[in-house]
């Protein structure tokens, strides 16, 4: 590809018979693997890809069970890491910056923990390092949503207040009907898999890292965010406006923080 596309070029690979779909925003720059969080998809990184071009080539998968990627039999932390490595191998990329939001942020630093030779730097966007809460999932509200509806409007009506957030992500089904870009039960299983103490993974590597903290985060307090940055060597903290979905609620501030960090890398 000669330039960066706002929509990216859609590609796919098959892992054990399961399709993993991804967007490659192209360009001649260094590779950056961008991992979305729950209820999201690779297209969420289009604006960042544009802001980072041409120095960086952003590759953004629809993670297992999300977007155009197939549902999977399991959603463990190791599953997500393995998918990321398989995608890098598929594209012939030996080393990349890993960037992720929320659960994708956990994956970004766990890739580095398990495969340090494949990661040149980490950008963790609101990805918790320690969550020992074993109560109901914070995303349990999705269980009231139907996965499939006979038409798009019926699905929009069924998801109610989330329609403005998810409307553009709904998918038509080949044999008729429309579906959510994730399966509700899969989402709960995946989200619960992010709980636990991940400090060892976060602090086990020495590569440069950026932790992005949203000032109005619903997930991480300012004290927790500053501790996350302080306890890992060679780690910067960027505090930006917006809520937990900082890359969409303050896209300009987010892009500036990421670009400023990437500009410091050799």
Index terms:
266 residues, alpha/beta, Rossmann fold, eight-stranded mixed beta sheet, three-stranded antiparallel beta sheet, 10 helices
How would you sum up this structure, described in words?
The chain has helices spanning 46-52, 77-90, 103-114, 152-159, 163-166, 184-192, 199-203, 222-230, 246-249, 251-262, and strands spanning 9-15, 18-24, 30-35, 56-61, 96-101, 119-125, 130-131, 148-149, 171-172, 178-179, 196-197, 208-214, 235-240. The chain is 32% helix and 23% strand. The radius of gyration is 18 Å and the shape is globular. It is built from ten helices and 13 strands. Helix 1 (46-52) links the parallel strand 3 and strand 4. It has one domain (9-134, 193-262): Rossmann fold.
Concise summary:
The protein has 266 residues and is α/β, with parallel strands linked by helices. The chain has helices at 46-52, 77-90, 103-114, 152-159, 163-166, 184-192, 199-203, 222-230, 246-249, 251-262; strands at 9-15, 18-24, 30-35, 56-61, 96-101, 119-125, 130-131, 148-149, 171-172, 178-179, 196-197, 208-214, 235-240. The strands form 3 sheets. An 8-stranded mixed β-sheet has the order 1-2-4-3-5-6-12-13, sandwiched between helices.
Q: Level of helix content?
A: 25-40%
> How many beta-strand segments?
13
* CATH fold name: Rossmann fold
Radius of gyration: 18 Å
Average pLDDT figure: 95
Tell me the CATH architecture: 3-Layer(aba) Sandwich
């Amino acid at each position: 590809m000669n330039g960066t596309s706002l929509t990216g070029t859609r590609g796919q690979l098959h892992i054990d018979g399961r399709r993993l779909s991804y967007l490659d925003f192209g360009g001649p720059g260094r590779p950056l693997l961008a991992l979305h969080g729950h209820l999201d998809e690779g297209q969420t990184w289009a604006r960042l890809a544009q802001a980072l071009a041409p120095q960086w080539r952003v590759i953004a998968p629809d993670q297992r069970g999300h977007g155009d990627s197939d549902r999977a039999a399991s959603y463990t932390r190791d599953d997500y890491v393995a998918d990321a490595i398989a995608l890098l191998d598929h594209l012939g990329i030996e080393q990349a910056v890993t960037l992720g939001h929320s659960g994708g942020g956990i994956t970004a630093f766990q890739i580095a923990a398990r495969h340090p030779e494949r990661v040149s730097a980490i950008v963790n966007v609101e990805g918790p390092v320690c969550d020992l809460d074993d109560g109901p999932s914070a995303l349990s509200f999705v269980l009231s949503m139907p996965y499939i509806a006979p038409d798009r409007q019926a699905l929009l009506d069924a998801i109610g207040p989330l329609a403005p957030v998810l409307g553009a992500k709904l998918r038509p089904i080949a044999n008729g009907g429309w579906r959510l870009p994730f399966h509700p039960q899969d989402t709960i299983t995946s989200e619960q898999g992010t709980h636990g103490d991940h400090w060892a993974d976060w602090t086990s590597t020495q590569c440069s890292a950026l932790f992005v903290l949203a000032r109005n985060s619903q997930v991480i307090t300012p004290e927790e965010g500053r501790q996350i940055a302080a306890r890992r060597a060679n780690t910067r903290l960027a505090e930006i406006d917006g809520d937990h979905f900082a890359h969409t609620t303050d896209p300009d501030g987010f892009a500036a923080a990421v670009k400023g960090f990437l500009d410091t890398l050799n």
